[in-house]
Amino acid sequence: MDTGGNMKNVELASDGAAELVRGFLGAWRERDLDRLVGFFADAAVYHNVPVEPIRGVAGIRHAFARFLEMFERASLDIVNIASDSNLVLVERIDRFVMRDGRGIELPVTGVFEVADGKIVRFSDYFDLGDFQRQSGLSL
Question: Which class in CATH covers the domain with range 10-135?
Answer without folding.
Answer: alpha beta
